[in-house]
Amino acid sequence: FFSGKYDIYSVGMIGLRILLPSFQKDPRPGVDERNPSMSSLFANFAEVDFPRLGHNLNKWKDDVLRGRDPTMQAEVQELFAGEHDQLLDVLQEMLMKGPAQRPDAGKALSLLRGETSVKKKGGIGLFGF
Hints:
Layout: H1 5-19, H2 21-24, H3 41-52, H4 57-65, H5 70-79, H6 85-94, H7 105-113
């Protein structure tokens, strides 16, 4: 029984969507996320790329840096530059394929509270911590 661990995965996905502007609004010309026949960068990540790479953020980073669009490359390069390693480690745990491998909400929250280097505009840390 994995109560709440499916939600942990969702929170991890939301965290990545917040951290990468190209996941919020697809920068590719002509792509409209509201059109059900189009697939956004975030949908490609969640449904194709991330599962194909074994739900491994570092493998996904390497894949992006080998040749995707330059906007996404710059965002990924900045996120993985070393300053946010603790946050990325927590997100990786939250995004493990199997629910049994993910932290519960209490552990995830405790780990996230330890992250102080990620700041949003206005000086508020990720998720308000």
